[in-house]
Amino acid sequence: MREDAVVGDRAAQDDALMRALYAEHAGPLYAFVLRLVAGDRHRAEDVVQETLLRAWRNAEQLGRATGSVRPWLVTVARRIVIDGHRSREARPKEVDPGRLESVPAADEIDRALRAMLIAEALGDLTQAHRDALLETYFKGRTVNEAAEVLHVPPGTVRSRVFYALRSLRLALEERGVTS
After folding, report:
1. Could you tell me where the DSSP H helices lie in 91-107?
2. What radius of gyration, in Å, describes the C-alpha atoms of the chain?
3. Which residues in the chain are classed under CATH 1.10.10.10?
4. From the candidate CATH numbers 3.40.980.10, 1.10.1740.10, 3.40.50.1000, 3.40.190.10, the one assigned to the domain spanning 2-93
5. pLDDT tens sequence across 105-144
6. Nearest CA to 133 among 117, 116, 157, 149?
7. For the segment 50-79, what is each residue's pLDDT rounded down to a tens digit?
């Protein structure tokens, strides 16, 4: 039981030390930090809180210190401000999302859905018509080059492309896709 009494007595001493530190140094420390952080009140409050937390963690050393602890508190606060500044500078600047929302961008979902509908419509074509379209439109070959690849006359390629486009247009209209 003796150990519990010692721990309780120590906690009471730490509590008394922190209350005394806060009462004596929090106001002047806040004013000092407020100048360091260019008037940012929230940041100044955070720095003072962190400084007093570090003082609490080092309560044994501060309790044994002779003279004022204010220089120690000011040094700690100054280092916290410097560390915060360095960490913000090390990270890339955050972008204001408001600006991004105003930039026009193509809707990729509509484009993907449209591509899916076109792929389905191409699947409805006969293999010969689909091959003629793939060779001429999607692979960029001329009619003569497509004829060589498909082993058919150029006139047949032209005819298949014509009828394939007509069938494709009808299939897309049925699916609600407009040009």
Report:
1. 97-102
2. 38
3. 108-174
4. 1.10.1740.10
5. 666 777 788 888 888 888 888 999 999 999 998 899 999 9
6. 157
7. 988 888 888 777 767 677 788 888 889 999
